[in-house]
Amino acid sequence: MLRALLLILELALLALIAYNLAVALFGWKNPRPARPGAESSRFVIVIPAHNEERVIARPVNDLTEQLRPGDQLWVLADRCTDATAAVARTNGAKVAERPTGPDGKGVALGWFLSEHPLAPDQALVVVDADNHLPAQLLERFAAELAAGYAVLQAFLDVTNPDQSPVATASALSYWASSRMVQLARTNLGWPADLGGTGMCITATALQAAGGFGDSLVEDQDLGIRCFLAGYPVRWLHDVRIGDEKPSTAAVAMRQRSRWISGRRTLARRWLPKLLARGQPAAFDLALRLVQPSRIGVAMLSALVAVASALGAPLLPWPLWAAVAFGQLVIPIPFLLRDGVPVRYLGSYPLLVLLPVLKLAGRFRRNRGWYHTPHGLGDLGSDRSGPAE
After folding, report:
1. Which one is the CATH code of 42-268: 3.30.1330.90, 3.90.550.10, 3.90.640.10, 2.10.70.10?
2. Angle of helix 249-277 versus helix 218-228 axis, rounded to 10
3. pTM for this predicted structure
């Protein structure tokens, strides 16, 4: 009985690995960007900021140069006790100040939209206060909206990959998943994930999805609701936003603790509705809510190989060793495809830090929304963009 149960679990794990690999292969191809078309949507760009006086000028200046007639640039100064609002105004942004209220980006954005509702022909763009923004951001968003897409997510690059081993591991994880997970889903016609920053959504889609909620993972929650409302998230692989990642284990653990708690709530809330759809895209979205990370699955495979080698009644250990090794090396061609410098590939074993931090975060008491501190790091990678 035990042997049969273990075999079923092993086959389920192998099926999950095979499924993720098959889907990842669809991320190899770069989609053709939409051609510039009739620009019917006006943008309302919002930068949520909590005590970001040190960094807020950078995204404001990046965006000011891109504004078209009718566009609005706002800084949402959320319960700030520093000069964030003053710095934003000095650099040309409008400022909405939320003096009190509960924590959370989704709550803050919901408050902003209640004070400044979108018109039917407007689209909301959200970027973070620490972002480096490409010069073509709004131009590319406008082209994709004109092509008929309603919910867009830009590639979230990493500005500080050399800051620490934790930052390097995060960068490698983001770079690999951007092509193997997000782009692959868009190429299949399935929804990508919203990333909390670098996202654009039309007023129609946002209203249909029910606006922003109070989830600890408000971006993933909104992405699911957009899909259920008929507006899947489209990934823009050629539009790269520089985003700072945690550089210390303590910050990364607190961030992952919030993600784990939030995803657990989303799974309870949305799994039945997603599975009831009976669609491959909905099944895939449901699976992403509950499955471990790719590197976590690789580590689990390695543990099974060790247990098998020690005599546990499992499939042969060479099989599991090969499976674990394959999961570690398969992302490398995808990273090279995206122009990741070879010097980073030598740091690939650092990815094992992420499941460890995630496991630690699972046992850490989540105290609600955690504001990740931002620094002033410049882009630490010499990557030139995705290969054509």
Report:
1. 3.90.550.10
2. 20
3. 0.90
